[in-house]
Design goal:
- By secondary structure, the protein is mostly beta strands.
- The protein is about 0% helix and about 60% strand.
- It contains no helices and five strands.
- A five-stranded mixed β-sheet has the order 2-1-5-4-3, with no helix packed on it.
- The chain starts with a strand and ends in a 9-residue tail after the last strand.
Length: about 70
């Protein structure tokens, strides 16, 4: 199964992303999008799985320590 995940970041400090994953995100997971890390706050299924794909929406919050030194 391939998981197509729409990551939406609360607060507007990051545009979010759409990414493929081999495992579904879970509440409490830490995900890296670009140079930042995010904590997953909520996950919901957008529609039932079809043709080997599952479609998920994950709401995230940027971790304050996710800034890299090269910025």
């Amino acid at each position: 199964m391939i998981y197509k995940v729409s990551y939406v970041v609360i607060g507007g400090e990051h545009p979010g992303a759409i990414a493929n994953a081999d495992e579904p995100p879970k509440v409490g997971d830490i995900v890296k999008l670009g140079r930042h890390e995010f904590k997953v706050l909520d996950v919901m299924e957008l529609m039932p799985p079809r043709g080997g794909f599952a479609f998920l929406h994950a709401t995230c919050q940027m971790l304050p320590s996710s800034e890299t030194a090269d910025q």
